[in-house]
């Protein structure tokens, strides 16, 4: 039992080391020194550089972000970077607050174990103008691991590729499904159009029949009106003749009476 306890005691440090001794991957705050170019002497520009630098790994190389911090008394952004690690600075951002001006910039490097050279320009109007060659030395213990980051990026790339393939397959299936739905919609539209044509034909037939009936009705009405006028005229004529007959009879009766009286 005692031996087992001692084994556990010895194993605990090993477990602790295995958990926390791995190299750091990703964004890291890394301290650095600013030297005169080609020497180990601090540069006069060292005081302008804010520490630490921010170091990340992108596409198998380091992306270093540094910031130059100057007092407002030296005017706006008196220190600018002309080149660093053999390249122009990227992602340059100029900001300020109530006391300082900040000049942030980035550069890429595949190896930060060696000194990184830089060329800067200092321009304080009416006081100091000069161009300086300086170099940076980064704390190696704080740097993220290129290998682990590259492996992580490779895995992420593979996952991304797998997701893209899955997405493409899904899009293909969706496209097939959409095509089937579109075909069904077209078939339904054709069926609806065919039914509409049949209904239109029926409506045309009914309209023609209604028009024919209307014409017949109008003809019958016209004939009825003509017959009515004829009957009315005949009745008036007969009535007139009847009245004339009565008047003639009355006239004859009066005339006969007058002759008898004479």
Automatic annotation (TrEMBL):
It comes from the Bacteria. SUPFAM superfamilies: NEAT domain-like. Pfam families: NEAT. It comes from Lactobacillus equicursoris 66c. The chain crosses the membrane at residues 228-252. It is found in: Cell envelope. This is NEAT domain-containing protein. GO terms for cellular component: cell envelope.
């Amino acid at each position: 039992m005692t031996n087992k306890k001692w084994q556990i005691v010895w194993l605990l440090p090993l477990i602790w080391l295995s958990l926390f001794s791995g190299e750091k991957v990703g964004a890291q705050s890394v301290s650095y020194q600013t030297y005169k170019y080609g020497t180990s002497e601090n540069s006069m520009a060292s005081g302008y550089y804010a520490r630490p630098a921010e170091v990340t790994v992108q596409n198998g190389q380091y992306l270093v972000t540094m910031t130059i911090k100057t007092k407002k008394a030296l005017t706006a952004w008196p220190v600018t970077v002309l080149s660093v690690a053999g390249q122009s600075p990227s992602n340059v951002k100029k900001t300020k607050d109530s006391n300082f001006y900040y000049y942030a910039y980035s550069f890429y490097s595949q190896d930060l174990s060696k000194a990184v050279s830089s060329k800067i320009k200092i321009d304080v109007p009416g006081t100091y103008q000069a161009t300086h060659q300086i170099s940076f030395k980064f704390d190696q213990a704080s740097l993220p691991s290129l290998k682990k980051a590259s492996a992580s990026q490779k895995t992420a790339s593979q996952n991304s590729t797998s997701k893209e393939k899955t997405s493409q397959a899904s899009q293909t299936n969706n496209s097939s499904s959409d095509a089937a739905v579109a075909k069904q919609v077209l078939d339904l539209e054709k069926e609806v159009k065919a039914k509409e044509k049949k209904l239109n034909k029926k409506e045309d037939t009914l309209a023609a029949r209604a028009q024919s009936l209307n014409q017949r009705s109008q003809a019958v009405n016209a004939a009825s009106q003509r017959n009515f006028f004829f009957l009315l005229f005949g009745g008036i004529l007969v009535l007139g003749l009847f009245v004339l007959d009565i008047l003639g009879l009355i006239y004859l009766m009066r005339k006969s009476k007058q002759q008898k009286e004479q």
